[in-house]
Amino acid sequence: MSLADVDTPALILELDPFERNLRRLNESLAERSVKVRPHAKSHKCPQIAMRQIALGAVGVCCQKVSEAEALVEGGVRDVLITNEVIGARKLQRLAALAKQARVAVCVDNVENVKALDAAAAQFNVTLDVLVEINVGANRCGIEPGEPAVDLAKRIVDSAHLRFAGLQAYQGSAQHMRKVEERRAAIDGAINHVKRTRELLGKAGIPCPKVTGAGTGTYLLEASSAVYDELQAGSYIFMDADYARNDWTESGIPRFEHSLFVWTTVMSRATDERAIVDAGLKASSIDSGMPRIADGGPAEYIKASDEHGVIQLNGAAGYAVGDKLKLIPGHCDPTVNLYDDYICMRNGRVEAIWPITARGALW
Prior knowledge:
Structural class: alpha/beta
CATH superfamily of the largest domain: Alanine racemase
Oligomer: single chain
Number of strands: 17
CATH architecture of the largest domain: Alpha-Beta Barrel
CATH topology of the largest domain: TIM Barrel
Largest sheet: 9 strands, mixed
Distance between the termini: 36 Å
CATH class of the largest domain: Alpha Beta
Helix content: 25-40%
Low-confidence stretches: none
Order of helices and strands: EHEHEHEHEHEHEHEHEHEEEEEEHEE
């Protein structure tokens, strides 16, 4: 099928730039000793995860147990859940999953350590557990330093848990627009990690690894001699919000847009605007409106449930029935709106990849 024949709205993955992005990340790390553990919450798709692993990734990250289950069922054998898992039912499923693949999880409180140990005992497994420390994002994460060391001690003393290192992700740094802002934020994160790791050593607790980083900063963490794993995820797609970052002198390569929402003009009630069939249910706007991929003067300015309003600004075309590509404002929640990627090469459908972990929210 040609792209013109694909019905809308649809989620389009252009394979050539997608594959270049995969290679570009690896090439940018060729002289580094760090490992890549891409975040699968961006794509939720085993076919993509297995391509990342084939290029050398040690495994993937997930955010939820159900997401990890979908990736393991799709063939992934090493998953880190970069999140706290709370609740007996979820913990039982996590422990059961550890019988099928290598599974690790993060904690930031003592009660969670106790519950994880109990679930692991119930399923007769040993779970790898990382202490998540707050390195500036002020979301999850125990404070670095002594509080983190005390929590690590509780993991070490647990019969069915193994202390696997530190989770240190500075999420708020990823979309800081200026390179110097991102660099300062990551320098602060690195200092928190160094201090915590030093105190762990003094307490006689080996720290097997430090993991973190994202698409906006990963080379900064890679250059730190502190981080062992990098969790960049959005690099494979690149959304409109990431494109607003200043990449000059960051050292990070310019990844290409490969993910698009394919949409149709459904109304031209006036000369000033066009209405398309991709609204809130087709593209997430939490990080801003989608951008029209052709780079012309027209702008996507408003979204409602099933409609997107395009202000033409003198742009030609946009007749009823015309189709166009939108660059999502935020790739991760946009992906979660679709069942499949329509994978294109040279204007024709080459494959359809199911978004297996769509809706995996628990």
